[in-house]
Amino acid sequence: MRTINRENIMKAINKGQVNHSNYRKALALARERLREADFALQCQRAGAEVVEPEADHALARIKFIGANYLVDFPSGEVRREGLDEEPLPYDRIIILHYLVHARGAELTGELISFQQIPDGWLYYPAFRKRTTSILARTFRGEVEDFMKAGLAVAAVPSALGQYALEIRALPKVSCHLIMWPGDDELDTDFSCVFDRSITDYLPAEDITVLAGVITSRLVQNSKRGPR
Fold first, then answer.
1. Mind spelling out the 3-state secondary structure of the chain?
2. Among 101, 118, 149, where does a domain finish?
3. Is 122 inside a domain boundary?
4. Which of 101, 128, 154 is where one domain is finished?
5. pTM, rounded to two decimals
6. pLDDT score for 225
């Protein structure tokens, strides 16, 4: 059986998440839309904390996959709190888009699949390729490894199954990953569902990227690496 090393699969994830020719344009547009928004209102809707409110400047703290990030207004600069290094491109895009799109909806407790998200069917092949397929190759029946890797994304056990995790990716965005370990006849597989309120915060394209970001964190913290 051909093996795929960790470095190669991480390159595949990152290549799929970021089209570098479009990244700068997407980031500039996200910053422009944030400048045009009522920043305090959007932070309130998004569950972000405004920590430095001033007349012409503000700074908000927002939790993203278990870590605190700071968003500057009106520049739209994003940085991880306590670190000098620049956040990854797709992290910044997702955080800004979340703030811009936030409608203030609370978690509903109703779960939906990716295909049930508006336009989800368009992005589903990319979603599966970047998320559940990679997770299945990485963990291949190693349920303990999967559950431990969840600590890297601040996951908690989900009520959806014995081998399931709930990840609060953003203050008002929740997703569940369910592992089906497989056996001698069935391969390992994964399912991913979201609280229905995610559609009030991110469109299908961004949800695809977000799921890929979570996947990359899990892969990085698996003991075996992808196979």
1. CCCCCHHHHHHHHHHHHCCHHHHHHHHHHHHHHHHHCCHHHHHHHHCCEECCCCCCCEEEEEEECCEEEEEEECCCCEEECCCCCCCCHHHHHHHHHHHHHCCCCCCCCCEEEHHHCCCHHHHHHHHHHHCHHHHHHHHCCCHHHHHHHHHHHCCEECCCCCCEEEEEEECCEEEEEEEECCCCCCCCEEEEEEEHHHHHCCCHHHHHHHHHHHHHHHHHCCCCCCC
2. 101
3. yes
4. 101
5. 0.87
6. 54
